[in-house]
Specification:
Layout lengths: L1 H17 L12 H8 L3 H13 L3 E4 L3 E4 L16 H7 L4 E12 L2 H7 L6 E11 L2 E11 H4 L4 H5 L3 H7 L4 E12 L2 H7 L6 E11 L4 E10 L3 E2 L2 E2 L13 E2 L12 E2 L9
Parallel strand pairs: 9-12
Antiparallel strand pairs: 1-2, 3-4, 4-5, 5-8, 6-7, 7-8, 10-11
């Protein structure tokens, strides 16, 4: 059990590193914090970290902890306004449903506290859900909201209309969405919720919602089935670009023969 557990933790940490979770300082959570997060002993955490060290991803600095040394390159793109996947699903003539499997408040570890601009250890609302399209798995979503903004959010609201839409309806206007995309592999927990085999390819998308004042209001990690979801980017620039064409992303409806795959990207208008 311990050997498979350390490998699972190493796998999760690889994904968190690829998503840029550990910020500009690249400082990772302490061994004690990681042990609490994964509910394992420090030797198990250390074995996972040593695995990543052998892969050249992290290093241990005496008296300072563990730091990321190698990660994916991140290119920032100015690509128009944000749109939820729900809109692309609807345009394809399909229906999407969400089932919330975890809902409650948790103390923020350093990495999440940094991403959401709150104090380490402060309360965050955490929700984990699975979304299906016409009964077939689409993605697993983890969402976090600072407690000061999440007080009136309920499990029912997280189910429908969803946390981000609920925040908007409560007056927390989202003006910017920072999106990070990388690749990953399905874990045993994905298998339980999405019905996929461990090791199947996933598309990992991290989205941070920023309010009008410039502070983060929510963060979501999506684990999409790679065979069912894609992101398409359309870039418009230079003098040939029509003024009415805002640089951005657009939803693409696939032909009936490819209906198992959904392509979603932010077009010009906001949508839920």
């Amino acid at each position: 059990m311990t050997s498979s557990r350390y490998a699972t933790i190493a796998h999760d940490l690889r994904e968190r590193i690829a998503l840029g979770e550990f910020g500009d300082t690249w400082a990772m959570d302490s061994e004690a914090q990681l042990g609490a997060r994964y509910d394992v002993s420090r030797p198990t955490v250390r074995r996972a970290l040593e695995t990543l060290r052998d892969e050249g991803l992290v290093e241990s600095r005496h008296g300072a902890g563990w730091f990321v040394t190698g990660s994916a390159f991140h290119q920032r793109l100015a690509i128009g306004t944000f749109r939820h996947a729900t809109s692309a699903v609807a345009e394809a003539g399909r229906s999407i449903e969400r089932r919330v499997v975890e809902f409650g408040f948790r103390a923020a570890p350093l990495s999440l506290a940094t991403a959401l601009a709150v104090a380490e250890g402060s309360d965050l609302l955490h929700s984990r859900s699975v979304r299906t399209v016409d009964g077939e798995g689409l993605d697993v979503v983890r969402e976090w909201v600072p407690a000061m903004l999440a007080g009136s959010l309920s499990r029912d609201a997280a189910t429908s209309p969803g946390i981000w839409e609920s925040l908007t309806r409560q007056g927390h206007r989202i003006t910017t969405v920072r999106q990070t995309v990388t690749a990953g592999l399905a874990s045993t927990s994905d298998d339980d919720l999405l019905g996929v085999a461990e090791g199947d390819p996933l598309l990992l998308v991290r989205r941070v919602a920023v309010g009008a004042g410039g502070d983060p209001v929510a963060m979501a990690d999506h684990r999409y089935l790679a065979a069912r979801f894609a992101l398409e980017v359309e870039f418009n620039s230079g003098p040939a670009t029509a003024a009415s064409e805002t640089p951005g992303l657009r939803a693409v409806a696939l032909p009936p023969s490819s209906s198992a795959t959904l392509t979603s990207t932010p077009p010009k208008e906001n949508a839920s």
